[in-house]
Amino acid sequence: MSAPPLIEVRNLRIYFPIRKGFLGPVQYVKAVDGVNLRLYDGSVLTLLGESGCGKTTLGKTIAGLYRPTAGEVLFRGKNIWRLSSSEFMIYRRSVQIVHQDPYAALNPTKTVFTILATPLKRWGIARTRSELVERVSKLLELVGLTPPEDFLYKYPHQLSGGQRQRVVIARAISVNPKLIVADEPITMIDVSLRLGILDLMLELREKMGTAYLFITHDFGAARYFSAKGGGRIAVMYLGKIVEIGPAEEIIKNPMHPYTQTLISAVPVPDPEISRKKKPIQLRSLDIPSPVNPPKGCRFHDRCPFYIEGLCDKEEPPLTEVKPLHEVACWRVIKR
Ligand SMILES: Nc1ncnc2c1ncn2[C@@H]1O[C@H](COP(=O)(O)OP(=O)(O)O)[C@@H](O)[C@H]1O
Ligand SMILES: [Mg+2]
User: Fold this and answer.
1) 7-109+155-255, CATH topology level
2) Ligand 1: which atom is nearest the Cα of residue 18?
3) Residue ranges per domain, the chain?
4) What pLDDT was estimated at residue 280?
5) Least buried of 57, 166, 179, 209, by fewest C-beta within 10 Å?
6) C-alpha distances in angstroms, 245 versus 46, 248, 254, 321?
7) Taking the model in full, what pTM does it have?
């Protein structure tokens, strides 16, 4: 039997209760609504989808920050919410999250040294002052903040957004995690500094073999990251994965109409893809509410190819249509 994946997500649902008005009925935002995923050691999975489709919720749940409404998250085959406290500590250390906002992620009253020394002390990786300075300097070098002496005793407000995100990444890798959940790590960073951060993450993966769940709403970023990092792309729509497969395959041969929409909205430098690419006219530009997602296929009321009586009635299952390429679309499955 092969070893269990690093992380496995099974039939995961995360519902947030909300109330309309002060005394209104409680409703549920179905942020994640039946997701299955496997993340393997050293692998890259890019999670792509429009804002509000549930990417952050899924990422936070994988990092153990939300408890599932239903379904489970397994770490090396074990449900993370049923681990012993020592196993939970190992899991916590193994999965680190880099949030979207590097301004909110760092305590403004602490120096870079203190910020990076804290997890090292907590996990017993370094203890004495000189060990800590040495380790923290090494981390700063790894994330391109050199010479380290220029950064050790700076406060977050003295750094640019890109530099702050480098500190956040240094903190994530400081404990040698197995997985980094990088939630839109470049969205709030100056455009000119974005590729540098993506390159840094890819370089660290080469050096350390860390697996990534790279979350983005931007197809251009997904393409850049996977062109260099390989791996798989999963496309999410209204709480569900609608297409998943090897990155190159998804970019060259997207099969779900929603994936095709995302891709056709972005200029493609590769003429081979541009030629094949036909713009897709959505029937509606509005994203439906995750409180009452459409029946059948959740994309049917925007989809130009929907089949009446099928797509609006029955939900298409995520189905392998080519090796490792899975799509949840009746048109594709029924071919
Ligand atoms: N704590 C929360 N309480 C209520 N609704 C939430 C909460 N967090 C997220 N949501 C809702 O869940 C849906 C998915 O959000 P999110 O996971 O942040 O999506 P994404 O990261 O793809 O933009 C959205 O409709 C959002 O408004
Ligand atoms: Mg988000």
Assistant:
1) Rossmann fold (3.40.50)
2) 4
3) 7-109+155-255
4) 76
5) 209
6) 10, 8, 9, 10
7) 0.94
